[in-house]
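Hi C.,

You asked whether I'd gotten around to modeling the 311-residue construct. I have! Everything is below, sequence then structure, no commentary in between.
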Amino acid sequence: MAAVAHPSMFASPPTASPIDLRQLDRSLRRPRTFVSYALSLLCGLLAVLAAVPLLSVLLMLIVRGGARLSPALFTELPPVAGVAGGGIGNAIIGTLLVVFIAALISIPIGVLCGVYLAEINPDGRSASVVRFCARLLTGLPSILAGVFAYGTVVLATGRFSPLAGGIALALLMLPLIVLTTEEAVRSVGEEMREAAIGMGATQTELVWQILLPTAAPGILTGILLALARGAGETAPLLFTMAFSDYWLSHRLMEPTASLAVLIFNFSKSPFENQKEIAWAASLVLVLIVLVFTVGGQALSRRARRMAGARI
């Protein structure tokens, strides 16, 4: 028996009631909208106020330190008291050298510790102890790292040296590298681990061929931020490297100049030329730290984009 079509089957669907757009207006007379605008304005004002000290310091460094920027500043030795001219060439080399030594010590240990915490034994008792110590070291005063390196290296060898300074800076850089490496390795998707294990990869192959290459942007972010912190430290180098008015020789076990200590010494000088050199060295040191920091932030944004693309 054929079904009889009911007239209601051919009726047009009911139309939606018109929306009163006036109800969607964000009028300031509405309490919730007024509070939202007020809090947004307050947050923006506080952000601007927080940036004022940083911008003022940068402006002062550019004005006072930029006046001494010249090729001679990077190729000459620091001036002696009362003598015009001079540069910071040996201090730049000493700073890069001690940061390089600190990187050689802290990066391999930090990355391996981070992998251990994230993948090898994440829930073990030893991992909890290492994680707690790393977080504790992030708040270690830098002067204590210098005292430690002075007591263990300087007194043992009888000499101030970049090696002692590198060990002191490595203590400050190590916890940051450990914690960022752990977070970067943890952020790798579980499906990548399962796929590698399903294809017969061992744990060593999983770490070296899958986890570390995938987490490399996040790991490099932590490394660059740690380098930025190490390059800007002064107190550890006062205890470990002292200062030198000469170029670095082929021997590492001798007092060596650094930008931070040069700024510390020359800023107290009664001679105007040395004060100008201190301003120029401050600008150069800030630029070095800025390069490391901006590079770390750029790699961090790239890592987040890559993580979002995988999701």
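If it helps when you're writing up: The domain at 71-77+85-310 is CATH 1.10.3720.10 (MetI-like fold).

Thanks,
B.
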